[in-house]
Design goal:
Helix 22 runs antiparallel to helix 24. Strand 13 and strand 14 form a beta hairpin. The protein is an alpha/beta fold and 834 residues long. The chain contains 26 helices and 19 strands. The strands form 4 sheets. Strands 1, 2, 3, 4, 5, 7, 8, 10 and 11 form a 9-stranded mixed beta sheet that branches. Strands 12-13-14-16-15 form a 5-stranded antiparallel beta sheet. A 3-stranded antiparallel beta sheet has the order 17-18-19, with helices on one face.
Length: 834
Amino acid sequence: MTATRFFSKTRLMLLLLTTCFLLADRFGLLASLERMTYDLGVRFSLRPMAQRIIQIGVDSRSLAAMEQGFQDPRYDMRLIRALAPGNPRLVVDTRGIGFEDDQTAMEILIEAKKKLDSSDFQSRADRELAQTLFDLEKKLAEGMQKIDRSLEYGRFVGGMGNVILSIRGIPRTSDSSPRIPLRREFLKHALSTMEAGSLPTGMPELLLLQAPPPEIAKHVLALGMLSVEPDSDSVVRSSPLGHRVGEAFFPSLALSVAARSLNIQTSEIKFQPGRSIVPGTWDISRGFSDTMLTFFYHDAQGQSPFPMVSLIDVLEDKVPVATFRNQIVLIGDTAPGLIPRYPTPLGQPLAPVELLAHEVATLLNQDAFKRPSWTDESGWIMIVSVGAALVLFMPWLSPFIGGVTGMGVAVLGWIGAIHLMMHHSLWIPWTGPALFLFSGSALILATSREKRRRDRVVPRSEMEDGNKMLGLALQGQEAFSLAFERFRQCRLDESTLEMLHHLAVVCAETGCFPESIEILEYLEQKSPGYRDCGQRLAEMRATISAGATGDDGEPHVALIPGKLELLDRYRLEEELGRGLFGTVWNGIDDTQHREVAIKIIPLQERFPDGTAFSRAKSLFGRMADQCQSLRHPNIIRTEETQILDGQGIVVMERCPGQSLARHVTPGQLLPLPTVIQIVAKAAMALDHAHRLRIVHGNLKPENIIHDDVTQEIKLTGFAQYLLLEAISEDDRQHPWHRVNSLLAPEQRSGNIPDRRSDIHALGRIFSQLITGQTDPAMATPPEHSPPASTPASIPDCLDRIIHKCLEPQPENRYPGCIELARDLVACIKSRING
């Protein structure tokens, strides 16, 4: 299958997936996923809530203690009278019972009284008429009692001045439904009496169902519409801030309570698109239809922060009246079966009075969730955008990178939507597009796996034949290492073993003994006793061991001045220096006509054992890779590495100057400003290496090249400590063990060096360049000796820097070289300013 066909098939499937998600969004199938994410964000969101709201509920105990019935208005009157001494800020009765059924009866009785007053009492001789008038007088007496009771209740709540009652309505289902004119006692609590066309267009319109009689309505502080409007899944997430009733507009009960709590008059509330409800002072987050996304308060255990007390406990004086002082008291039914409960995003069904508590707190704290207006119609736009990205761009990327990136962005975006709700009260519906992006990215990964499976059409036997032919061709070009790698990818049948044996013989005949030994070791491991591999391997090891050292006991360098066979572009001129790990030569690059430095590390001579030598070669490769990745003006650049005749070859740039070892003795010390510059440049070079996770591990004056003319420095010897891992724990006489006396305390204890080990070494060099003496702390165990002391003429800030570098415990040193360099700069500035 060609790449073009593969990507065409992938794009076709992505287009189909885009269409499916667009249809799902069109028919509201993704809305349930968005609601699930919204509910999750509500559950994770926590906000502080001051105790300003208290609830009084008609619970099961209250119902059992009521003698006349739970709807008897006398209980409401007794309750409000009981609350009056406590001086609550507001008393809000949400029960909607007591007098709402009396309004019609009172109107009838008033008309009956007018008829009685105009009747001719002489006609009472008519028995039937007399009986009718008697019944009418009886009903009139009962109606007048209700009127008197309403007037008494109204005068009482008017005297309190802090009572708010609820009104209720039902949706007006048709434009043909008649609008019932409202009394002026109700219109005084409305926001507007303008014509319906001038009211907010998005507000739901209701027909008034329950309301207190006019005698009460004209005395209460405010009226508010109590309405619960669940979503399509029956969960209450939002609440309207107002409703239209006839030609008037009433605030919701929550808005009315919150406004009066803040001493805001009803006349000050203005609903204008994109503006504050109270101009300039009260900005409530609301949607297009002036609907608020309620914040549901809860603690870490999911419990409501609003206290609830029983109505019967208040009536029986079991609750101190001081409990209600300056509180917003909400009264409502809570007994099971008495009133419906509505599910919430918290997973807990709440009664209307409990929902009202959350709504009022949301308004007072301005904690309503915000949904940007552009998200109302952005669902399909985001799906189309994600689909375009998947179809046009993702298939051109690597399937793995594109798929993993897409799924990661989808998951992070979904988590980000939850984060915005938790910390910024902002709801961005992203679940549908995130699921689309995740599905599309997974589809790309799946189709890429199918492509790889179908591309594997070459039989294994043909692949092996190709590797063998390529290996023979590389062997003919004397690229023995590459040929060995090709043969190793084949099955070890008789023909492969024969080719490997012949390759080892050819390597030995051409003088490539390390490669020949490596091949023979592989054959001995995979097929012990094959032909004469064991005998050849022993003979080559003995030959190399016998010629490893000269008569004087010094390392015998097989690469004498002259041409290097594999690195034939270089010519050795003279020896520049000799250290524990090897010898550095001055070389000439004949191809570019320049000088280079060539370091020769005698790996075979230091590790004559085959296993140890193989490990040393592997460690040398790691060291070479790390050195070649370093690119810094104060680090010697490594240009090429090679293992030749059992010796590691490192070709580096040739830098003028000599090591700092000549400046750490008395009489040869450099000026203090020069020393500070050297240490600062070394710190920046080490910081570059540490950012690449490369540790020097053996920093000392000999590894820092200093040019006396330009005052520039170059660091060398990075990662040589890795070669120490090839030393066996039992080989305590190995020459490289001497390097341990120069390491940091934790390294001498056997720990792997890190950046703080380099900081310790740099601090020791700093001290030596100033004092001309070896750090005395090195002569005794670090836990029993203090850091080195500096001369009294040295500034205190430099003394503190050196002491911090030489702290025995690594965690007490500088965390990084950049911090050391900053302290040096700060010290210099303080000296200049002082």
